[in-house]
Design brief:
heterodimer; A: mainly alpha; B: 3-stranded antiparallel beta sheet; 4 helices
Chain lengths: 186, 97
């Protein structure tokens, strides 16, 4: 792969991740703080970047782990400014867990059975779920050194809800782009 | 084709599929016309014959291949379904009914 293509992929992944994380940090986290103050703020109940991670890993493979790292570290620093203290290891654990989840699903549940030639969103859902389980295990271990099922479930719910909302946002973005194109034609 | 373009195309197809499954995928003018025709004809009988759809005044501005394609699209979108024992019979499906 050419350097230009690497750079292009890196920029796309970084912009998508930063946008999703900013939405989570600037909008979801404060709302969660108001509505569900009993839930730890580190456990995002709608974690949009999980959708970006799943898409990046699916389309770009292991390289996406490296593309995700700089944006993840940047957002970790910004989270610390916002009062959400995250462990630096999380930045590595999450994309790696996502990649392992993707590999497991691809190995045990191959998607492309003929005649279908394109991925279905449910398939991404399976990848998101398995990655999230691994991510939850990883995060819980990093944070507490012991498995807290309640917290792990919180991470799982946040990741899955985030994945679904992220896909909905993308779907409406493409829909809006189509409508704009149609409007400019007429 | 560049891999970026290929990935975007795949993602767009996947999201279009998601739209169709959620039931918010736009349908074209011909599809709309055919669907309205079927709704109209379904008042008289539960099953609607292809011949009647093609001859409906609403559809006489469209070519036969376009109308057949529209029928196929509506079927794949789950708006209509084949019905009865004979060929060429359609009925409204799911929430369209």
């Amino acid at each position: 792969m050419r350097l230009k293509e690497h750079f292009q992929n890196f920029v796309i992944v970084s912009v998508a991740y930063i946008t999703a994380y900013s939405l989570t940090l600037g909008f979801v986290a404060p709302v969660q703080k108001i509505l569900m103050s009993s839930v730890a703020i580190e456990v995002g109940l709608l974690f949009l970047p999980h959708g970006v991670r799943v898409l990046a890993i699916y389309f770009l493979g292991w390289k996406a782990v490296f593309y995700l790292l700089p944006a993840s570290y940047l957002m970790m620093v910004l989270s610390a400014q916002a009062g959400i203290d995250l462990n630096p290891w999380l930045v590595i654990v999450s994309p790696v867990a996502c990649y392992i989840g993707f590999e497991l699903v691809a190995r045990f549940l191959p998607e492309r059975t003929p005649p279908r030639r394109f991925p279905r969103w449910q398939y991404f859902g399976v990848i998101a779920f398995v990655s999230s389980v691994l991510n939850s295990l990883g995060i819980t271990l990093v944070f507490k050194q012991e498995l807290d099922l309640l917290v792990a479930t919180g991470y799982l719910m946040g990741d899955m809800a985030g994945f679904f909302v992220c896909f909905l946002i993308l779907m409406y973005a493409f829909r809006f782009a189509r409508l704009l194109a149609k409007a400019s034609e007429t | 084709m560049s891999s970026l373009l290929k990935n975007i195309a795949q993602m767009q197809i996947m999201l279009a599929d998601m739209e169709a499954q959620i039931g918010i995928r736009d349908i074209g003018a011909i599809e709309k016309s055919v669907l309205i025709t079927i709704v109209d004809l379904a008042n008289d009988a539960d099953l609607v014959h292809t011949k009647d759809i093609l001859q409906h005044p609403l559809n006489n501005v469209y070519s036969r291949p376009s109308l057949f394609r529209a029928l196929k699209n509506l079927e794949s979108l789950g708006k209509i379904a084949k019905g009865g024992d004979k060929r060429g019979l359609y009925t409204l499906a799911g929430e369209s009914a």
